[in-house]
Amino acid sequence: MAIILKGRSISKGCAEGEALVCRQPIGFNFGIDVANGVITEYNHELFGKSIKDKILLFPHGKGSTGGSYVVYQLAKNMTGPKAIINMTTETIIAVGAIMGGIPVIDSLEKNPYDLISNGDRVKVDADQGVVTIQK
Amino acid sequence: MDLTDSEKRMRDGEKGEPVRMAMEILLALGKIYGAERLIPIQSAHVAGLSLKSHGIAGTEWAEDLANRGARVCVPTTLNVVGVDRSRDFDFPKAWVRDQLRIETAYERMGCFGTSSCVPYYCGFVPRYQEHIAWSESSAVVFTNSVLGARDNREGGPSALASGLTGRTPLYGLHLDENRKGDVLFKVSAPLTDLADYGALGSYVGRMIGTRVPVFEGIKGPAIEDLVCLGAALASSGGVAMFHAVGVTPEAPTVEAAFGKKKYEAIEISAGEIAAGKRKLTSAKEKKIDYVAIGCPHCSLNQLQEVATLLKGRRIDKETTLWVHTNVAMKALAGQLGYVQTIEEAGGVITQDLCTILGNPEALGFKTLATNSPKMAFYAPGSNGFSVWYGSAEQCIEAAVQGTWKA
Description:
The structure holds two protein chains of two kinds. By secondary structure, chain A is an alpha/beta fold. Helices cover 19% and strands 32% of the residues of chain A. Chain A has three helices and ten strands. The N and C termini of chain A lie close together (5 Å). Chain B has helices spanning 5-11, 17-32, 51-67, 93-108, 137-147, 156-165, 194-208, 223-236, 254-258, 270-280, 300-310, 327-335, 338-344, 373-383, 392-401, and strands spanning 38-40, 44-46, 76-78, 133-134, 167-169, 183-187, 213-216, 243-244, 264-268, 290-293, 320-325, 348-351, 367-370, 386-389. A five-stranded parallel sheet of chain B has the order 12-11-10-13-14, sandwiched between helices. A four-stranded parallel sheet of chain B has the order 8-7-6-9. In chain B, helix 3 (51-67) links the parallel strand 2 and strand 3 (76-78). The longest helix of chain B is centred in the N-terminal third of the chain and has 17 residues, at 51-67. Chain B is globular and about 65 Å long. The relative contact order of chain B is 0.13. At the A-B interface, strand 2, helix 1 and helix 2 of A face helix 2, helix 3, helix 6, helix 8 and helix 14 of B.
């Protein structure tokens, strides 16, 4: 079964992959190893886990404003997420994703945390502003 | 969006490729956040200049812009970086070389090489209600909250884009209605030093995310206390602005801070401050090999405090003390004798760099003591250090004894 949700397109592009659901905000600068996409922030729920090649759901960014460059680096190093789904994307994530070409959608019409689970196959089409969840 | 003729020419590439690229970023942000138009800004501040943030990918991006003739058109300052240009710390040679490439690229674009997270301590002070495009999360909070300037949480590249065009999209905290408070924090806990303000910011930042906290009960804080509170709110959360009733300019009263908004109230007692301190402490080993003060960079008052605490004492021979500031504060501290006092005790005043953005882990340190909530928050992820968090006095005592006493 496929669930289709409309949202706001933040950074264009289209990607499909396995969902990684994170309930905490993510700070990219100093919070992630750009060599492999592993989260390094102490006490973070994704500590030790990699976001590489995932469709990454998290509420919003936080912390250091150098994060745009880190999102860009992750894209250039091919160690970042394939696409991002946020509740509300903030400027820092948006700019890094636009520079690096990572598709981002936020403000979905239904709460994505009720519908997306870890491991779900999810497609983010930020050109159309549509997220498709395969269950 | 409604663009002026001059803005249309910038968008269409008539002012060169870097300006066109900058407009592309700003117009994308404007579209996402529903801005009706662009507005002029008075200054910009570019953060994320450590090699850790830029990497080679970001370095080449900046060099490419400089090579294409990018040039800022409003005063644009640069944030703290990963090397100290006045001395050699035995960092890896490639690190120093590539870090200097980044600074050089931005200076070629006409930016001021202030290399500091506190440009307001080096003469760059935005005025009340002035529109600016600053990145550096602690500086965004400070300029919005304490100075009453108008700034969004810019990323480094969007701040540069504003520096290159003199514009930012009109959204977020540039608009009156978004500057009102969301949650009231009634502070009954005594806040006796910087570490208490840091613990408060850290506790509230984790809870409030990107909303605007209003503090009631903060009495007579020093500027440094407010810098520290903001830095903690912005690192543990995504806070861009706070109000302190009777202290910050847009909150003469609780009513003024919230406007017509409904809000909930949360009590902050000594227990919450203690919890904030525990969250910032990640070390178990009592032996300290590294003590660092000054994140954000120390003011002259803070340098004087460290010098006073260290006068006539000697730092443990197996412990290193770094006190971070910028070249302007360091020059004054030198003139006033603080640098000499700190160096005679075996400590070092660094300029340009800080623990998080620099590479002290390359020198083999393992356990850090600091009075900075921002450094305590980032150092485990950025440097791999375990951290003791406490007052400046506790940290200097740890530097002298070589051990942490709770």
